[in-house]
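Components:
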Amino acid sequence: MAGTRRGATLDELRAIYERRLPELTRVAAAITGEQQVAPDVVQEAFVRAVKDRKSFAGRGDLDGWVWSIVVNAARDARARRRDEAPPDELPDVADAVDDPRRDLVRAAVERLSERQRTVLFLRYYADLDYRAIGQAASIAEGTVAATLHSAHERLRELLSEVQR
Amino acid sequence: VRRLNSVSEALEVLVEPFEVEPDWSAIVRRAVGESTANRGRVARPSWRGALALAFLVVAILAAAAFASGLADRFSAWLNGSPGVPAPAQELRGFAARNRVSLASFPRGTRLRLLRRTIVSGTSFDLLGFQNGDAYCLRLVRTAVPAVAGNTECLRADELQGHVALVAGNAYFSVGKPATSITGVYGFASDSVKVVKVARARKSTTVRVGDNVFLALTGQPQGSVQHHLPPNTVLAVRAVMKDGTLRNVPYVVEGSTPGGILPGGNLPHVPSYFGAPGSNAIPGAPTKVAAPINHPQVAWLAKREERGTPLPSGGPVPYTFGRVIQPDPTEPVRIGLAIAPAMGFSHGRALTGNWVCLIDFVVLGSGGAAGAGCKPDPFGDGPIYVGSDFEEPITRFNGLAADGIARVEAFLASGQRVPAALGDNAFSVAVPEADLPGELVGYDSKGRVAGIAQLPGNAVAKPCPPAELTTPIGQLPARQTWERLDLSTLTVNGARIIGETPAQVRQRLGRPTFVRPKNQTVNGVGVPAYYYGGTTQATFGLDVVFAKRGSKIVANTLIFQSPSLVDAKLGHILRLQPPKLQQLIEGAYSNRYRLLTHYGGSQLTCSGSFADRSSAKGFSFGLDPYRPSRPFLQIAANAGSLP
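Structure:
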């Protein structure tokens, strides 16, 4: 066939959307730090995926390509929120739910690097393998394990600190 | 507060699983600029969350609007509910047609009725529906909903950049005696108030609603004796809500060569549609950066069973054939086949295999619309444009060699339209008026691997003046066949039209040259006689015969001798055509009526008169590419005149 493949079809994208929507939304909520906007971030990402579906060149798998779009959309949304709102008014997950430990976790997670956070979320919330995480987070597959390990260790330390 | 004992427990607390309602249709709608996507899936939105959400909504809409260029301009469609639900009869008709067509739409496609109009006593319905990211219009007679009809689909990226776009030309023949109903239909953005359709006779203005317009006009088809020339659509213009006028790109069709009116304006001087200049295509690559050596389609050569089987009994007796759907969201199907070579070359039967590309009409009743075969489709490069369907949306179907990962059309209008590409078959629809263009194939690294040219449209140009270089006094002496009487349409005092070859020879003398089989009708050769020359370029009179029942009779006389003299007007082919028209109108107004004025509504460098008391008529003018030989053509049927 022409090239490695011809782009994604609507049916393929729809299958991923319907199969993975809970995990996609959860990762988006974790990255943006705001559960309320996560569904829209995922919608926006899929709108982009549908529009750009013909540009999927077949490098990596389609799941990874979609995940990368969702991750980037969530990162963009997070960056926009930070640009728009003063830090003391940033909405967070605590606004929507009642677990008092959430603030502590959020505080700890915010001290990780963006790459560490993303890899951690993709692993825990979406159960992606290293190859897919690499594609979704736009990092080399070989560095995923190390990043995940360091994120794990760092978060453990930070949680200990914030719970003292 | 319970202590967090692990990273996984902490992450479970950070974002707990929550319910999300999937809404795929909203995604598809928003992908084409949906402005009111369903939201509100959040259980308890806080005001800060709502603010952030509002910001996101704006960002999403802005992005969609920027990407599609449509979000604020086709609101009736983007809101998802233009018009009213189509009547059950229409839905049944569409479903029935869809079932039997190879190039079909998804089952369950829901149509909406956008327009119903009655023209010359016949009702027509313009229906609309969305298919994937394409907007589709379907025009049918209300009473006959199960026909293929006129169904045109345009993707958002094909609509982009236009305030309005003609999606289809309509041709219907209804009733007895027959009435021709012709016109155009298409899309118009929110900013368009009405659409003006300029025709050869009597322009019309139609309103825009649900972001569509429909302009149909009827006229009697007439008879041989009382023939009306076609009422060609010449230009389409949009009257904007701010009162300004915008040209809607349109390629004039009709019996004469079609083309573009620059700016949609009818020329003020006699004009014709001439060859386009070499238009530069904005942004289009001009060089191939990564050529593909020995381009091929391996799966086809290996006869892999991709797509679906190609129905047998089509236009090509193939040995292997498959049907490919380049984009699963579009109804377009392309047949690819390997067929044994057909025909002869230098007396020898051709051997080997050809690659054939077979087209199917959308909603056609199953059979192929046509096929093209070549021994080496990639002889000119890895992009083979096998076919194009014109009027007024041109669809290019073709074959891309292995190694081509993406195909894109670059248009003279500046638009870029990605082609659907699947299993090496590609298809792309572009507004015909936006041509010329280029089809560019890219490899997987994004490098230009192949370029194919898409030809442009003819454009209206002023008719050149007749080059009358030889003074009348220096013309050779008149022959008998150069003595014309326009008042009776006789030559040398004798009737020629309707006479047999023998009678013509008896009255005009022996022809200079005879083409014994100028045409063949039912195996019978029908001749043409040349007087005063032996070729098309040099004859002074060409007598063209036709078969009428069992007889062969003179049907048309074409004069181009500068020595031709009319009994009343003198050397009529030594006059500029507009002057000749003026003189004929003055001298023969009781006998002839002006059918088309010179270089006018038909946009050819000719004009015509019809006999008031018979079917006969004559035209006059010049070939713009050879203005030194003006012509006058007399025909038994004025309807056949150029």
